[in-house]
Amino acid sequence: MVRVRGGFGCLVALVAVVLIYLVSPVRAHQITAEEREEADLFVLGNTVFILYHELGHALIDQLGLPVLGHEEDAADNLASIMMIPEQADPMMDELIIAAADGWYLGNLWQQEGGNTEPAWWGEHALDMQRFYSVVCLMYGSDPEGFTELAESVRLPPDRRTTCPNDYLQARTGWSRLLAPHLNPVESRAGRDSMISLDFEAPAPAHGYVSSLLHESGLIIAIARDIGTSFKLPGDLTIRFRNCGDGTANAFYDKAVPAVTVCYELVALYNDLILRDIARR
Predict the structure, then answer these.
(1) Residue of 205, 200, 197, 214 lying closest to 267 (CA atoms)
(2) What is the rounded distance in angstroms from the CA atom of residue 255 to the CA atom of residue 252?
(3) CA-CA distances (angstroms) from residue 56 to 49, 67, 79, 254, 258?
(4) Predicted confidence (pLDDT) per residue in 208-225, tens digit
Protein backbone atom coordinates (compact mmCIF):
# COMPACT_ATOMS: atom_id res chain seq x y z
CA MET A 1 0.00 0.00 0.00
CA VAL A 2 1.26 3.47 -0.81
CA ARG A 3 1.86 4.91 2.64
CA VAL A 4 -0.20 7.97 3.49
CA ARG A 5 -0.51 7.51 7.24
CA GLY A 6 2.71 9.21 8.24
CA GLY A 7 3.05 9.00 12.01
CA PHE A 8 -0.44 7.57 12.46
CA GLY A 9 0.73 4.17 13.65
CA CYS A 10 3.02 5.68 16.29
CA LEU A 11 0.29 7.98 17.49
CA VAL A 12 -2.14 5.08 17.89
CA ALA A 13 0.29 3.46 20.30
CA LEU A 14 -0.41 6.33 22.70
CA VAL A 15 -4.15 5.66 22.81
CA ALA A 16 -3.97 3.20 25.71
CA VAL A 17 -2.08 5.76 27.77
CA VAL A 18 -4.50 8.56 26.91
CA LEU A 19 -7.54 6.49 27.91
CA ILE A 20 -6.33 6.22 31.48
CA TYR A 21 -6.82 9.95 32.00
CA LEU A 22 -10.34 10.19 30.60
CA VAL A 23 -13.27 10.68 32.94
CA SER A 24 -15.62 7.71 32.56
CA PRO A 25 -19.37 8.23 32.06
CA VAL A 26 -21.77 7.82 34.95
CA ARG A 27 -22.63 4.21 34.01
CA ALA A 28 -18.95 3.22 33.95
CA HIS A 29 -19.05 2.20 37.64
CA GLN A 30 -20.90 -0.91 36.45
CA ILE A 31 -17.89 -2.19 34.54
CA THR A 32 -14.23 -2.73 35.34
CA ALA A 33 -11.39 -0.49 34.20
CA GLU A 34 -10.32 -3.18 31.74
CA GLU A 35 -13.83 -3.36 30.28
CA ARG A 36 -13.97 0.43 29.99
CA GLU A 37 -10.68 0.39 28.08
CA GLU A 38 -12.06 -2.35 25.82
CA ALA A 39 -15.16 -0.25 25.21
CA ASP A 40 -13.10 2.84 24.40
CA LEU A 41 -10.97 0.93 21.89
CA PHE A 42 -14.17 -0.40 20.31
CA VAL A 43 -15.59 3.11 19.94
CA LEU A 44 -12.34 4.43 18.49
CA GLY A 45 -11.86 1.50 16.10
CA ASN A 46 -15.36 1.82 14.69
CA THR A 47 -15.20 5.60 14.42
CA VAL A 48 -11.86 5.45 12.61
CA PHE A 49 -13.23 2.80 10.22
CA ILE A 50 -16.35 4.78 9.34
CA LEU A 51 -14.27 7.96 8.95
CA TYR A 52 -11.91 6.25 6.51
CA HIS A 53 -14.96 4.81 4.71
CA GLU A 54 -16.48 8.25 4.19
CA LEU A 55 -13.10 9.71 3.25
CA GLY A 56 -12.99 6.97 0.63
CA HIS A 57 -16.16 8.41 -0.89
CA ALA A 58 -14.61 11.88 -0.71
CA LEU A 59 -11.42 10.78 -2.48
CA ILE A 60 -13.41 9.00 -5.20
CA ASP A 61 -15.39 12.19 -5.80
CA GLN A 62 -12.65 14.80 -5.35
CA LEU A 63 -9.98 12.94 -7.34
CA GLY A 64 -12.34 11.59 -10.00
CA LEU A 65 -11.38 7.98 -9.30
CA PRO A 66 -13.06 5.21 -11.29
CA VAL A 67 -14.98 2.57 -9.37
CA LEU A 68 -15.60 -0.94 -10.65
CA GLY A 69 -18.43 -2.52 -8.68
CA HIS A 70 -20.19 -1.03 -5.68
CA GLU A 71 -18.67 2.17 -4.32
CA GLU A 72 -19.71 1.20 -0.79
CA ASP A 73 -17.62 -1.98 -1.04
CA ALA A 74 -14.67 0.00 -2.40
CA ALA A 75 -14.89 2.46 0.52
CA ASP A 76 -15.02 -0.43 3.00
CA ASN A 77 -11.91 -1.93 1.41
CA LEU A 78 -10.04 1.37 1.71
CA ALA A 79 -10.98 1.67 5.38
CA SER A 80 -9.79 -1.88 6.00
CA ILE A 81 -6.42 -1.59 4.27
CA MET A 82 -5.76 1.79 5.89
CA MET A 83 -6.28 0.24 9.31
CA ILE A 84 -4.63 -3.15 8.80
CA PRO A 85 -0.99 -2.61 9.87
CA GLU A 86 1.73 -3.54 7.41
CA GLN A 87 3.86 -4.72 10.32
CA ALA A 88 2.69 -6.43 13.50
CA ASP A 89 1.13 -3.75 15.72
CA PRO A 90 -1.02 -4.98 18.64
CA MET A 91 -2.82 -1.67 19.09
CA MET A 92 -3.76 -1.37 15.42
CA ASP A 93 -4.86 -5.01 15.47
CA GLU A 94 -7.20 -4.17 18.36
CA LEU A 95 -8.70 -1.22 16.46
CA ILE A 96 -9.39 -3.09 13.21
CA ILE A 97 -10.76 -6.12 15.09
CA ALA A 98 -13.05 -3.72 16.97
CA ALA A 99 -14.23 -2.33 13.63
CA ALA A 100 -15.08 -5.83 12.41
CA ASP A 101 -16.85 -6.58 15.69
CA GLY A 102 -18.90 -3.45 15.16
CA TRP A 103 -20.66 -5.01 12.17
CA TYR A 104 -21.27 -8.22 14.14
CA LEU A 105 -22.74 -6.41 17.14
CA GLY A 106 -24.72 -4.10 14.87
CA ASN A 107 -26.36 -7.13 13.28
CA LEU A 108 -27.10 -8.58 16.72
CA TRP A 109 -28.62 -5.28 17.83
CA GLN A 110 -30.90 -5.29 14.76
CA GLN A 111 -32.05 -8.82 15.53
CA GLU A 112 -32.72 -8.01 19.16
CA GLY A 113 -34.81 -5.06 17.98
CA GLY A 114 -36.97 -7.36 15.87
CA ASN A 115 -35.47 -6.27 12.56
CA THR A 116 -34.70 -9.75 11.24
CA GLU A 117 -35.48 -9.20 7.56
CA PRO A 118 -32.24 -8.44 5.64
CA ALA A 119 -32.31 -5.34 3.41
CA TRP A 120 -31.42 -7.25 0.25
CA TRP A 121 -32.06 -4.12 -1.81
CA GLY A 122 -29.74 -1.85 0.21
CA GLU A 123 -26.76 -0.04 -1.27
CA HIS A 124 -24.56 -1.41 1.52
CA ALA A 125 -23.61 -5.04 2.01
CA LEU A 126 -25.30 -6.73 4.95
CA ASP A 127 -23.64 -6.22 8.32
CA MET A 128 -22.46 -9.83 8.59
CA GLN A 129 -21.04 -9.67 5.07
CA ARG A 130 -19.12 -6.55 6.05
CA PHE A 131 -17.94 -8.29 9.21
CA TYR A 132 -16.52 -11.25 7.30
CA SER A 133 -15.10 -9.01 4.59
CA VAL A 134 -12.96 -7.16 7.14
CA VAL A 135 -11.92 -10.43 8.80
CA CYS A 136 -11.00 -11.94 5.42
CA LEU A 137 -8.83 -8.94 4.51
CA MET A 138 -7.11 -9.14 7.90
CA TYR A 139 -6.45 -12.83 7.47
CA GLY A 140 -5.30 -12.26 3.90
CA SER A 141 -2.75 -9.69 5.05
CA ASP A 142 -1.11 -12.18 7.45
CA PRO A 143 -2.57 -15.72 7.38
CA GLU A 144 -0.21 -16.99 10.06
CA GLY A 145 -0.75 -14.06 12.39
CA PHE A 146 -4.55 -14.06 12.07
CA THR A 147 -5.23 -17.80 12.01
CA GLU A 148 -6.61 -17.74 15.55
CA LEU A 149 -8.94 -14.87 14.60
CA ALA A 150 -10.21 -16.74 11.52
CA GLU A 151 -10.86 -19.86 13.58
CA SER A 152 -12.59 -17.94 16.38
CA VAL A 153 -15.17 -16.46 13.95
CA ARG A 154 -15.48 -19.70 11.97
CA LEU A 155 -14.23 -18.34 8.68
CA PRO A 156 -14.38 -21.51 6.53
CA PRO A 157 -11.05 -22.95 5.35
CA ASP A 158 -12.06 -22.78 1.67
CA ARG A 159 -12.86 -19.07 2.05
CA ARG A 160 -9.55 -18.47 3.80
CA THR A 161 -7.68 -19.66 0.70
CA THR A 162 -9.06 -16.72 -1.29
CA CYS A 163 -8.45 -14.04 1.35
CA PRO A 164 -4.76 -13.35 0.52
CA ASN A 165 -5.73 -12.57 -3.06
CA ASP A 166 -8.63 -10.40 -1.87
CA TYR A 167 -6.26 -8.41 0.31
CA LEU A 168 -3.64 -8.08 -2.43
CA GLN A 169 -6.27 -7.03 -4.95
CA ALA A 170 -7.75 -4.38 -2.63
CA ARG A 171 -4.34 -3.05 -1.62
CA THR A 172 -2.92 -3.00 -5.16
CA GLY A 173 -6.06 -1.54 -6.68
CA TRP A 174 -6.30 1.36 -4.26
CA SER A 175 -2.54 1.97 -4.43
CA ARG A 176 -2.60 2.32 -8.20
CA LEU A 177 -5.57 4.65 -8.11
CA LEU A 178 -4.15 6.88 -5.40
CA ALA A 179 -0.47 6.97 -6.44
CA PRO A 180 -0.83 9.69 -9.12
CA HIS A 181 -2.56 11.96 -6.60
CA LEU A 182 0.01 11.74 -3.79
CA ASN A 183 2.29 14.57 -2.77
CA PRO A 184 5.98 13.65 -2.39
CA VAL A 185 6.61 12.16 1.05
CA GLU A 186 9.39 14.64 1.81
CA SER A 187 7.07 17.62 1.20
CA ARG A 188 4.21 16.59 3.47
CA ALA A 189 5.59 17.69 6.83
CA GLY A 190 5.71 21.32 5.74
CA ARG A 191 2.34 21.40 4.03
CA ASP A 192 -0.86 22.90 5.35
CA SER A 193 -3.60 20.27 5.52
CA MET A 194 -6.37 20.53 2.94
CA ILE A 195 -8.72 18.98 5.50
CA SER A 196 -10.11 21.02 8.38
CA LEU A 197 -11.92 19.76 11.46
CA ASP A 198 -15.17 21.13 12.83
CA PHE A 199 -16.30 19.69 16.15
CA GLU A 200 -19.71 20.96 17.17
CA ALA A 201 -20.22 21.16 20.93
CA PRO A 202 -21.75 17.78 21.82
CA ALA A 203 -25.09 17.32 23.48
CA PRO A 204 -24.69 16.36 27.16
CA ALA A 205 -25.44 12.71 26.38
CA HIS A 206 -22.50 12.61 23.96
CA GLY A 207 -19.94 14.40 26.10
CA TYR A 208 -17.94 11.30 26.97
CA VAL A 209 -17.54 9.96 23.42
CA SER A 210 -16.67 13.46 22.21
CA SER A 211 -13.92 13.73 24.83
CA LEU A 212 -12.69 10.27 23.87
CA LEU A 213 -12.29 11.31 20.23
CA HIS A 214 -10.48 14.51 21.16
CA GLU A 215 -8.14 13.00 23.72
CA SER A 216 -7.14 10.04 21.53
CA GLY A 217 -5.80 12.38 18.84
CA LEU A 218 -6.79 9.90 16.13
CA ILE A 219 -9.20 12.15 14.24
CA ILE A 220 -6.66 14.98 14.12
CA ALA A 221 -3.97 12.57 12.92
CA ILE A 222 -6.15 11.16 10.13
CA ALA A 223 -7.20 14.60 8.94
CA ARG A 224 -3.58 15.74 8.89
CA ASP A 225 -2.30 12.66 7.08
CA ILE A 226 -4.98 12.61 4.38
CA GLY A 227 -5.00 16.39 4.05
CA THR A 228 -1.26 16.66 3.41
CA SER A 229 -0.75 13.44 1.46
CA PHE A 230 -3.15 14.00 -1.42
CA LYS A 231 -3.39 16.64 -4.12
CA LEU A 232 -6.96 17.54 -3.33
CA PRO A 233 -8.56 20.09 -5.70
CA GLY A 234 -9.92 22.13 -2.79
CA ASP A 235 -10.58 22.20 0.92
CA LEU A 236 -12.47 19.38 2.60
CA THR A 237 -14.05 19.45 6.06
CA ILE A 238 -14.57 16.67 8.59
CA ARG A 239 -17.50 17.57 10.82
CA PHE A 240 -18.75 15.98 14.03
CA ARG A 241 -22.36 16.99 14.61
CA ASN A 242 -25.40 16.47 16.82
CA CYS A 243 -27.67 15.19 14.06
CA GLY A 244 -30.74 14.77 16.27
CA ASP A 245 -33.80 12.52 15.97
CA GLY A 246 -31.70 9.49 16.86
CA THR A 247 -29.81 9.78 13.57
CA ALA A 248 -26.83 7.43 13.94
CA ASN A 249 -25.15 8.12 10.63
CA ALA A 250 -22.06 9.28 8.77
CA PHE A 251 -22.00 10.59 5.22
CA TYR A 252 -20.08 12.52 2.58
CA ASP A 253 -21.72 15.59 1.04
CA LYS A 254 -20.05 16.55 -2.24
CA ALA A 255 -21.89 19.89 -2.39
CA VAL A 256 -20.01 21.31 0.62
CA PRO A 257 -17.71 19.22 0.39
CA ALA A 258 -17.62 17.63 3.84
CA VAL A 259 -17.62 14.35 5.69
CA THR A 260 -20.09 14.41 8.58
CA VAL A 261 -20.06 11.96 11.49
CA CYS A 262 -23.01 12.16 13.85
CA TYR A 263 -22.25 11.99 17.55
CA GLU A 264 -25.28 9.68 17.73
CA LEU A 265 -23.36 7.10 15.68
CA VAL A 266 -20.32 7.28 17.96
CA ALA A 267 -22.64 6.96 20.97
CA LEU A 268 -24.25 3.92 19.35
CA TYR A 269 -20.85 2.25 19.14
CA ASN A 270 -20.43 2.87 22.85
CA ASP A 271 -23.87 1.43 23.56
CA LEU A 272 -23.25 -1.67 21.41
CA ILE A 273 -20.09 -2.64 23.25
CA LEU A 274 -21.53 -1.91 26.71
CA ARG A 275 -24.50 -4.13 25.85
CA ASP A 276 -22.10 -6.86 24.77
CA ILE A 277 -20.11 -6.56 27.99
CA ALA A 278 -23.31 -6.77 30.03
CA ARG A 279 -24.27 -10.04 28.27
CA ARG A 280 -21.14 -11.85 29.40
Answers:
(1) 205
(2) 9
(3) 10, 11, 7, 12, 12
(4) 999 999 999 999 999 999
What is the Cα–Cα distance from 170 to 55, expressed in whole angstroms?
16
pTM: 0.89
How far, rounded to the nearest angstrom, does the alpha carbon of residue 26 sit from its chain's CA centroid? Answer: 26
In this structure, what are the phi and psi dihedrals at residue 87, rounded to the nearest 5 degrees? -120, 155
Judge residue 89's burial from the number of C-beta atoms within 10 Å of its C-beta, 0-12 exposed, 13-18 middle, 19 or more buried: middle
Contacts of 113 (CB under 8 A, 6+ apart): none
pLDDT, tens digit (0-9, with 9 covering 90-100), for 134-186: 999 999 999 999 999 999 999 999 999 999 999 999 999 999 999 999 999 99
What lies within 8 Å, CB to CB, of 34 at 6+ separation is none
Between the CA of residue 67 and those of 55, 260, 264, what are the distances in Å?
Answer: 15, 22, 30
Is omega for the bond preceding 204 within 30 degrees of 0, making it cis? Answer: no
Alpha-carbon distance values, 22 to 8, 18, 202, 214, 241 (Å): 21, 7, 16, 10, 21
Identity of residue 126: L
Alpha helices (H) in the chain, listed in sequence order: 8-12, 15-20, 33-62, 71-83, 90-112, 127-141, 147-152, 157-160, 163-178, 185-188, 207-216, 218-229, 263-279
